[in-house]
Design a protein that fits this description.
Length: about 150
Amino acid sequence: MASDPAAARPAAARPATADPQPQVSGDPRDQSIGDLLKQLSNDTGTLVKQEMALARAELTQQGKRAGLGAGLVGAGGLFGLGAFGALTACLIALLATAIDHTWLAALIVALVYGAIAGVLALQGKNKIQDATPPAPQTVETVKEDVQWAKTRK
């Protein structure tokens, strides 16, 4: 085990800036209980702040991906409705002249629009599901921190 307690901690648990109070080096058994509690308090506070910052960054990134997915779902819905109104009349008229049955032409156009809207909605749903898991890097570093804390006993 390293002589410096900070060196034994996972990278995410190490303070990013220099501690304003000098670290006591050497064997923890040679330190007073007060010094050890003070060091524990400082290290715990730094660790919690760093984990919160990491979680915030990961959730922001996932929120952006979820927003993109929601936009794709909305685009699918907009395409399904807007195109239905604008192009339906044109396509039904075109098909009706070829097959001589207006109702069949309308059914064919409706099925094509439904397929397009379904594909776009599924793509958006997949993007939202990709962004759903909770901050994986934060979960992993918290697990490492728990393991580190267990080894310190």
